[in-house]
Amino acid sequence: MACPIPPKVFLTGLPGCGKTTIIKGVSGRLSASVTGFYTEEVRDKGGQRIGFDLVSHEGERAILARKGGRSRARVGKYSVFVKPLEEWGLDLLTPTADRPLVVIDEVGKMECLSSAFQQKVLELILSGHPILGSVALRGGGLIGRIHEHSALECREVDAENRDRMVEELERRFREYLRTVVS
After folding, report:
1. Residue 146: which residues within 8 A CB-CB, separation 6 or more?
2. Most exposed residue of 69, 96, 169, 176, measured as fewest CB within 10 angstroms of its CB?
3. pTM of the predicted model over 0.85
4. Domain-embedded: residue 111
5. 3 in any annotated domain
6. Mean pLDDT of 65-73
């Protein structure tokens, strides 16, 4: 019997379209099989966005970016902290036998400031592990390569399709995981 091809799906779309919400929904439903992280906005008490954190499936956090931070790596008004991504986040992107589904939210300009992150994502794309990720709508380098890679499925999220994607992707990944576990 041939081994099934692992799904490798990257969601893309405008900021705020629901990519992270979909990823959190799917990974929450498949929690026993998931490793990886998602990126979450950090807001001050007044509701203003002040940065972004990396969040593991278990809820552990590490700083990715902050307004006014002290880092030479910058994207717009944010200082990007590459060290936590490389020392903490990359370990989360290592699949295991009991957690083969890798969640990568997101492959964006901030994350791509790390060459180690870019290398890890490329290794995962070539691996035999399923991936559920998100990628910036536009960009060069790794972002462009993901959009153009023939082994990856890039799906644009919008108001018309976002509500049905959680169930659809959960079903697809669950079916794959059932065939490789049994």
Report:
1. 10, 107, 121, 125, 135, 152, 154
2. 96
3. yes
4. yes
5. no
6. 90
